Sequence to fold (1121 residues):
Amino acid sequence: MTSAVTIPRHGGTGGRTAVAARARQVVKAYGSGETRVVALDHVDVDIARGQFTAIMGPSGSGKSTLMHCLAGLDTVTSGQIHLDETEITGLKDKKLTQLRRDRIGFIFQAFNLLPTLNAIENITLPMDIAGRKPDKAWLDQVVETVGLAGRLKHRPTQLSGGQQQRVAVARALAARPEIIFGDEPTGNLDSRAGAEVLGFLRRSVDELGQTIVMVTHDPVAASYADRVLYLADGRIVDEMYKPTADTVLDRMKDFDARGRTS
Amino acid sequence: MTVMKTSMRNFFAHKGRMALSAVAVLLSVAFVTGTLVFTDTMNTTFDKLFAATSSDVTVSAKGASDTGETTSGNGKPPVMPAAVLAKVREADGVKSAEGTVFSTSVTVVDADKDNLSPSSGAPTIVGSWNANEARTMKVTEGAAPKGSGQVMVDADTADKHHLKLGDEIGVITAVGTHTAKISGIAAFQVTNPGAAIFYLDTRTAQETLVGESNVYTNVNVTAAAGVSDAQLKKNVAAAVGGDYKVQTAKETADANRKDVGEFLNVMKYAMLGFAGIAFLVGIFLIINTFSMLVAQRTREIGLMRAIGSSRRQVNRSVLAEALLLGVVGSILGVGAGVGIAVGLMKLMGMTGMNLSTDDLTVAWTTPVIGMILGVVVTVLAAYLPARRAGKVSPMAALRDVGAPADAKAGVVRAVLGLLLTGAGGCGLYLAAAADKAKEGSLWLGLGVVLTLIGFVVIGPLLASGVVRVLGAVLLRAFGPVGRMAERNALRNPRRTGATGAALMIGLALVACLSVVGSSMVASATDQLDKSVGTDFIIQSDTGQQITPQAVQAVKSTPGMERVTEYKVLDADIRTPDGKTSAKETINAADPTYATDLRTETVAGNLADAYRPDSMSVFEGFAKEHGIKLGSKVDVDFKDGTTATLTVRAITSDDVVIDKGAMYASIATAAKYVPADRMPLDQLVFATAKEGQQDAAYTALKSALHDYPQYTVRDQTDYKQALKDQIGQLLNLIYGLLALAIVVAVLGVVNTLALSVVERTREIGLMRAIGLSRRQLRRMIRMESVVIALFGALLGLGLGMGWGATAQQLLALEGLKVLDIPWPTIIGVFIASAFVGLFAALIPAFRAGRMNVLNAIATD
Fold:
């Protein structure tokens, strides 16, 4: 259905397709028979490369499930998901783990960092696990961008919530993944710290050509995205380009109203 | 009531997390109950046996022991003339009386000269078949022995050695070797724990065992109707006069029971000691479990406090959980203990000791002791964590506690630990420097206990240092996974410390004993090399004396330059200071013994002690009694008359072999001890002619083939035998310590399993950002290895310190050489790494199986 494709801005990736990830007829169901619950109901979606995509929807709409499936954290019941040219549905755990490690970055809502490692160790962890040396210049740039230069030796407990999320953003960026997935990355932050983190994400798309998918229920957060997908009852019911907080909020009010009348 | 309800719910909600603690309680309680049930059962078995075998009143020769066991130095049982029997029969109240002959100084062989004696240490008894025996033995095959050519054997021995009617049996005694054919097989009507019993007819028994006819070792008296045993004893004693020992059935049984009871008690307390060590180790496991449960539940506890629970209520709810754990673990433990007892009985059955499950004795005190021990230890162990739970502030409910904050080991701990360790170190130093063994062992005990407690207290602090070093050496190679394993081991030093300390205790004991054991071997070997000037040592490994026939066989072996006989005589010694030292022993040997064992003297020449009416004393004895060369001492030989001997040599106390021996020649002893009462040889030393050692060794072995009870060893074999003997003892102790080590390993598993649960979200996160299952498992395994190695390092270090101190102290007793058994120590260290790997198997597997999404979502 959606074919919103923008010109790739990702440096040095000219050979890549314009679609960073795509889902085709993805179904995710739990249980069977009477108790069967469908979380994703034949979802088709393309995630454009070099864009910031937000996924919104009420609780239970399947937005988190969709993100988890796209990120290779969860398996699908049927349908296919491709990350670039790689089909990830049907991959074994080992391959999936490698894929997450090398090609995907994560920012979770909370508990993003290992308490035993300091900030810089947390940032380079995915590369360390992979046995790769981080690109020093890139790392410096990322650290600079998220403004953590003075706190690299701090343990997570010594950092504020906002700083912790910035470390998480830096970790996601440092390995230069094809896509970064954020699961309500600002859900636990106050509006100022949240705005800061969202600003970084926006800049990484604009300046570094990063592809980002973010699940959120906050219209303000969604307004930082290039495109907003709306999910309800496991289906994509709408989308919006160049959103603002107000337009997102209005659209959500519409859904709520429709939800109540239907 | 709510407290109890929360405790119950918590207990059952976390029963998986409690499982290993319950197993630890179970194992310790089971070992205690098992020991008690087993020893009680042994006691019952022996009680029944002794009650069944004692006649109403037994008369025995004066020299016999209270148990009626009939052995004396000359290899023949003490006897009384047949006339005693006639006197007994005339006494009032005697229904019947019969004379019997028994001896335990015998060796019985089959036609191939293979020893039929039990290897379990139970006696071999040869005696006359009589009415008293017939009460407890039933002839199941063939007939009772008649005439000198027949012998009857007990059914258990016949079974064990596949003996049939008509097989030839040889009975070897100090009199000679008597052969007979099996005429019958008799079965015990009560459980016979393992003695091998052979019956001859009375006359043959007299001649074979004593070499005289018309003598008895015992007279068994049966009371007439209405006469009590005590009355009968009085009557019989009056009839036979004061030269004989008269005992009622009860007295005989009691004496027997006391004899066995002493041995059983030693075994019981030794086993309980090891159970105690297991309990001690289990305490660490329980403390860790509850600490972790409390830590994981901090928010929940904070909420309870916030809505109004008092500290005491929180405290009590944790203790109530411990109580439940203790009760469940102990009940299971008591049950398992009975199983262990039955298992031990079966095990003893394999070594030739028959115990019947019909006699299984569970005293009412046994489960009570097991339950109380289990419950009290568990609750005490949970006390500290419970107190910590009580201190949780209500604010904890509001704070976002992801994982519990890293617990910093405090200054108090450091100071206390250092003080204790320091004090313990001083104790050890004083022990090593002590010049009196008694005083030194006190210091040693104190030092061991204090250093152990000190190490336990300071363990968490050492953990940071030791783990870092281990990490630097071992884990760096594994890159980021190794680094995370190291950090994980370090993040809660108290937990790592306690887990390692549990392993430390068992391994410290292993290291200490291995050092002492190998120092013993090294010292003895060193001494043998320095002082032994003979080629072969002939001795019985079961402590039997050497019969004159066997000595003759040695002497007539070709290629011998000299053969030295060596006897031990009991004597009271009156010294010039007017004191009498009772129950001393004189080592009487041929003069060549001074060459066979070159003992240093502090005064005089040892060879002179073998001159007529001369002797030597040892340094300590000389000092104590003011004896100088030329002093006269009165030696009152128990088996003979009093001799006045001149001291011509004073031997050094700085020896291992024959320490505290006082030598005289056999010829001197023979002047005062009549030939028929002269003890048999304890040892015989043979020296081959120059260059004929090998041939002589072979010849000597074949010459002694007919006497399987004796072993001949050259110096190499002797050293090996010594080593084997100590090795066996150590293995037995290691086996018993294995229980404590198993509990400690459970502790490692427990810590890891609970850590994995605690770090669920972290694990989920790491998996999400790309840590593979294999890397995750490796990380947990390495954490486990590091904890195990930490415990091993501390334990081995501490144990070697103890062992070295003990050696220094025992140097006073001749343990001159310190020998650290590096292969054992390094082997244990490496094995600990594998134990760590093994302990991590299940926790690592479970961590690997965790669902990434659920793990991340875990609160």
